[in-house]
Amino acid sequence: MTPGKAYLSPESIRRLAARSDLMGVWLLVHCWGVIFGSVAVFALWPNILTFLLAVVLIGSRQLGLAILMHEAAHNALFKTRALNEFAGEWLCGRPILAELASYRHYHLTHHRFTQSDKDPDLTLSEKFPTSRASLQRKFIRDLTGQTGIKQLSAQIMMSFRLAGDDDAIEAATQDAAQAFKARDLWKSLPVFFGVGLMMSLLGNWWYGLAFWLLPYLTWFQLVLRIRNIAEHGATEKSDDPLQNVRTTLAGPVARALVAPYWVNYHLEHHMVMHVPCWRLPALHRALTATGLKNKMKISPTYGHALSEAGW
Fold first, then answer.
1. Are the CB atoms for 279 and 269 separated by under 8 Å?
2. 276-282: which pairs have CB atoms within 8 A and are 24 or more residues apart?
3. Composition of the chain by helix, strand, coil, percent to 5
4. Contact present, 224 and 239 (Cβ < 8 Å)
């Protein structure tokens, strides 16, 4: 479960895995600050460019909330367990219609059986490489909201279907297509729409629709797909932790729009999964210093990762 032990000393891993309540607070403040700051920029300078910028930045921070929920699933967002559970559930997961407990259960299974027949994420990665035309169709469906509407409709139907059925809930939790989502949607919808309502109350009545629902249905779906492709798409179906997962190097623009909160260091995350996201660059340096760099599956850009997947 911790492949990095083969290359790093217990002392190094322990130092890198140290959690921080202060950093947890900062990550949440930054994420929500970008979301509401993007709306404020449009309110101050309303035009098509600031509108599109807000939609893109907010969609990327909705992915950011998913990443911070992922941190909480590994008990790495906060040092204090109670803060980790509360923030992961109500400040990260529920606002994007996701649920910490079901995600944690599914995701730890993915770590245990990465790129094997028992990996619940295998359905997301085994279809790659594919054709450029197929990827184009997927990206168009994402950006036009078709994917988001389909997923949201399926989630609502799933919530009704699973109500009170513990066996069905357990089965759905193992489904990679459903694992991100809240199975008890009635708890999440008020939080999701509450964020939109807050935006509308602070601005105009349509702000919630334009700056919370629209990014969720469009840009968030696109960058979520790109993240999934970059992490395991067109990698080895094997138990080699240096080749069955990919790290993608990201500059400032990619980090802002596609890969927030160091999510691009995915190989490092699989090597020592309880290292907080903000320490992953240091873990990357520690691993490459051992001479592993040429053995690790690393893409220099997200464009290169997508090209390996068929783009």
1. no
2. 276/17, 276/18, 276/19, 276/20, 276/23, 276/71, 276/76, 276/77, 277/27, 277/67, 277/71, 277/76, 278/23, 278/27, 279/16, 279/17, 279/18, 282/16
3. 70, 0, 30
4. no
Cα(302)–Cα(249) distance, integer angstroms: 7
Residues in the chain: 311
Q: Kindly state the tokens that stand for 173.
A: 């939790």
* Strand, helix or coil for residue 234: coil
pLDDT band at 168 (very low <50, low <70, confident <90, very high): very low
Q: Cβ-count burial of 148 within 10 angstroms (0-12 exposed, 13-18 middle, 19+ buried)?
A: buried
Contacts of 184 (CB under 8 A, 6+ apart): 99, 159
The DSSP letter of residue 247 is: E
Task: Tokens for 11, please give them.
Answer: 């002392």
pLDDT tens digits for range 220-230 = 999 999 999 99
Of the candidates 225, 237, 238, 220, the one whose C-alpha atom is nearest the C-alpha of residue 302 is: 225
Beta carbons within 8 Å of 137's beta carbon, 6+ residues apart: none
List residues bridging with 248 in a β-sheet: 299
pLDDT, tens digit, 9 for 90 and up, residues 112-146 = 999 999 999 998 899 999 999 999 999 999 999 99
C-alpha to C-alpha distance for 65 and 95, rounded to whole angstroms: 8
